[in-house]
Amino acid sequence: MEINKIIKLLILCFFVQAVVSCKQQVKNDNSFTTDTLAIKVETEKTELNNDNKNDKDKIINFIIDFYTSYLIDFNNSTNTCDINKYLSKDFSKYLGSLDYDGIIHAQDYDKFDLNTLKASKTSKNNVYKVEFINMGHETVLYVKVKLINKNYKITNIAKDSNQIADIILSEIKQNEYDFDFLKYNTNPDDPHFSIIYTLEDFDSDTAIFQKVSNDESFEYFCLKKNTKKGLELYYEEDSKYNTYTGDTSKSLITIYKKGDDFYAKSPLIEGGKEIKLKERGF
Question: Sorted alphabetically, which Gene3D superfamilies does this protein's record hold (predicted)?
């Protein structure tokens, strides 16, 4: 009987040891799986971040290559830069309608020092900052780059990073809002108490928005932007009066037409109500 008890006790001990060993093995396996998964996730994050950084570096190099080639042509009076390699078709056609160089945003230029050429990423999606010196003054531009048919293409170049939508010719109303001078008088019957607002065309890209009154005046250079709403003017810089302190991402005035007549709405004019503008001579 004693022998049977000893044998049973030995079998029980062996069984308990086997169960404990199996549980420990499962724990180790789970720990290994969890560690492996964590390493895999971290690796994927790192690879994604690296890919994103590599894309940004490629675009910056793409922009530098373009401006280097373009400015060298200016310096050497040559025409070797392949515009179609860098610009979207719509943006390239749009540049041809401007009366200034839309790539350097200037009519006048001198020999460019390529050592001053820089490009960097901004906080806005697909928008990059370009800097260079032209005629002794720093030029700062913003370049929009998109992937079109698996190739990087520049879709717009602007002075204001807030006004750099893709140039799509089918969405732009060409020449519908051409004007030389537009005017609105709040009280034409009594000049002493009237406020006069004027809009004067400066060039194909810029207009001057002015207010003249006894109490307060302003004069702002504004960037033009054709939209479905009409011709929107966005603040660019002051002329000689008080500095504009409002939201520069919003238009100062929107000009549109009803038939042959010009109308406008502006938060700076009578609370944004619709006003009818008069052309010069009317």
Answer: 3.10.450.50
